Amino acid sequence: MIGGMEHLPSTEAALVALRAVAREHDREIEVSHAIGADQTSRRTAAGIGVTANPDGSLPHEAFVELGGSPRISVRLYPDDGDAQGDGGGADALITVEGVEFPDVPRDSVPAFVRSVLGGLAHVKGRRFPPGYRLVVPLPGDETYKEFVPLVTLTPWLSSRVR
């Protein structure tokens, strides 16, 4: 465990951690599940009618929405194992006020959401070339930055501009 982040071996473990973060910040949480290779969004290797992974396990994907402001949603992808030959590891797509952060490691998801809800996330503006980036710092000197189109600068994002 480094800087408050722990290893989350499954989608369900990540959901338990996200529910705890939602409770800490008094937020409602809504979860929908997709279980089986025929149901998940990343079924590149699954054949027609195949529901299990080659090892016999069922892939589990979840979509989480947190109530309140800022609007946060998290799509937790199933662990791909070594299917791509990159050592495996599951990841997530986190969306904050319409700004997408793809490929966030599953182990970093609770810290990411806690950082946003705790007020550490901010929008950094640049005069030339003009533009904005949503910056989400995590424990252990890990930072995620994504471009924010000017037309999607919501009131919450505008209130975080530095």
Short structural description:
The chain has three helices and eight strands. With 162 residues, the chain is an alpha+beta fold. It has a five-stranded antiparallel sheet, covered by helices on one side. A three-stranded antiparallel sheet has the order 6-7-8, with helices on one face.
Features:
162 residues; alpha+beta; five-stranded antiparallel beta sheet; three-stranded antiparallel beta sheet; 3 helices; 8 strands
Note down, in words, how this protein is organized.
It is a single chain. Helix content is 17%, strand content 32%. The chain contains 3 helices and 8 strands. It has helices at 11-24, 109-117, 155-158, and strands at 29-35, 60-66, 72-76, 91-96, 99-105, 122-126, 131-138, 142-148.
Helix content: 10-25%
The helix-strand sequence is HEEEEEHEEEH
Main sheet overview? 5 strands, antiparallel
Classify the beta-strand content into a percent band.
Answer: 25-35%
Overall, the morphology is globular
The whole-angstrom Rg is 17 Å
Q: Look at the helices and sheets and give the structural class.
A: alpha+beta
Please work out how many helical segments DSSP would assign: 3
> In which order are the strands of the major sheet placed?
1-2-3-4-5
What is the mean pLDDT? 81
- Uncertain segments: 82-88
Write the layout of secondary structure elements.
Elements: H1 11-24, E1 29-35, E2 60-66, E3 72-76, E4 91-96, E5 99-105, H2 109-117, E6 122-126, E7 131-138, E8 142-148, H3 155-158
Antiparallel strand pairs: 1-2, 2-3, 3-4, 4-5, 6-7, 7-8
